[in-house]
Amino acid sequence: MNKKLDHIGVAVRQIEESIDFYKNVLGAKMIDHYRSEAKGVESEIAIMDIDGDRTELLCPTNNSTSPIARFIKQKGKGVHHIAYQVDDLEEALQALKEKGIRVMEDTRRTNKHGRRLIYLNPADTEGTIIEYCDYPNEK
């Protein structure tokens, strides 16, 4: 199963300041900027592109239920997760299961860009939050 880095998710407190930094200091181009109130997301998201490499800026919109708010409270702002694009999400999940790696089923969803995603259980990844994703509409 092929895997490649899809994006890095960064937890931020002030999204506009972070967007300005990425644009004016790093030379990023904003691909999208939207708000998701879906359960388990509850974040404002800015997708930034630097020469083909993407970073998702994640700012909590609900400080009591957003997983990003919990992350910032526990660990502070910074890298939240690393996302790997796989050829087929269902095949990749089967391969993980065969290796005894658990996923967090409640994180499974399809985002507004058609990306199917799920997070691996950090207890099985040495504490790193890892997202597996695919883009079935691009096949």
UniProtKB/TrEMBL annotation:
Residues 79-106 form a coiled coil. The keyword Metal-binding applies. Gene3D superfamilies: 2,3-Dihydroxybiphenyl 1,2-Dioxygenase, domain 1. InterPro entries: Glyas_Bleomycin-R_OHBP_Dase, MeMalonyl-CoA_epimerase, MMCE/EMCE_epimerase, VOC_core. Residues 4-135 form the VOC domain. Keywords: Coiled coil, Metal-binding. Belongs to the methylmalonyl-CoA epimerase family. This is VOC family protein. It comes from Halobacillus seohaensis. The lineage of its organism: Bacteria, Bacillati, Bacillota, Bacilli, Bacillales.
